[in-house]
Write a structure and sequence with these properties.
single chain; 2 domains; Ricin_B_lectin; alpha+beta; about 230 residues; 12 strands; four-stranded antiparallel beta sheet; Trefoil (Acidic Fibroblast Growth Factor, subunit A)
Length: about 230
């Protein structure tokens, strides 16, 4: 029995979930939310990346063949390595790449409804390549052949994912804060008579960024990376 974190993986647009076809235990597609085990996934550390393993049959998320653009995503018997990064525009979401590439997990065409294929595609920044990880629970893996990570290793991996995404969130917020500070300074230096309301608006925006920065710092690592609600 090996404890691990279980997630549902929801596409930001069109709000459907990563789903293993329970009929063939092979195809990966989109599907509306349900409570089936085929819609739940273990995310486990492997070196500086992660594997994504289905709860129903312990098969791994992977491309069908070589990781090239527009290849279909399927479930396989061997681990496949992914990179997970916080989205630069929505810090509560993430993007999932085939490790060492700019090929992103992609809900084909951003189409609504069930049975839409999941592909590996060149990163284009679309919301159909943006995902939210919804934690379900932590409990022992039911698979006798699950990777033999120790409890400490599993917990370390979960925290590592949280800290990694938290760091990216903070970097993005810090970048926005610096941009806003520079804009305020340039406005003040280049045009001393700038409308006070305009400056107040920019200062309010800066204050909002600083508050977001503090909120991220005050979150637990896993909570910073993962959300359960919009």
């Amino acid at each position: 029995m090996y404890p691990g974190m279980i997630y549902k993986i929801r596409c930001v647009e069109p709000q459907t979930f990563l789903d293993l076809d329970g009929a063939n235990n092979y195809s990966i597609r989109s599907w509306q939310n349900h409570m089936g085990e085929n819609q739940k996934w273990y995310i486990e550390p492997i070196g500086d990346g992660y594997t994504i393993k289905n709860v129903l049959n312990a098969k791994y998320l992977a491309p069908k063949g070589a990781p090239i653009s527009h290849v279909q995503i399927i479930a396989v018997n061997f681990p496949f390595k992914w990179s997970i990064y916080a989205d630069t525009r929505d810090v509560t979401a993430c993007r999932i790449y085939a490790y060492g590439t700019q090929l992103s997990l992609d809900l084909s065409g951003g189409s609504k409804g069930n049975m839409i294929p999941i592909l590996l595609c060149t990163d284009h920044g679309g919301k159909n390549q943006c995902w939210k990880l919804e934690p379900q629970q932590i409990f022992g893996s039911p698979f006798s052949y699950a990777p033999s990570f120790s409890t400490a290793h599993q917990e370390s991996g979960i925290l590592s994912l949280g800290f990694s995404l938290m760091k990216q969130q903070l970097e993005e917020v810090n970048r926005r804060i610096e941009e806003m500070r520079k804009l305020i300074e340039d406005t003040r230096d280049n045009n001393p008579r700038t409308n006070h309301r305009q400056l107040e608006t920019r200062l309010d925006q800066l204050e909002s960024m600083l508050m977001l920065h503090d909120e991220i710092l005050n979150q637990r690592p896993v909570q910073a990376a993962l959300v359960t609600d919009e």
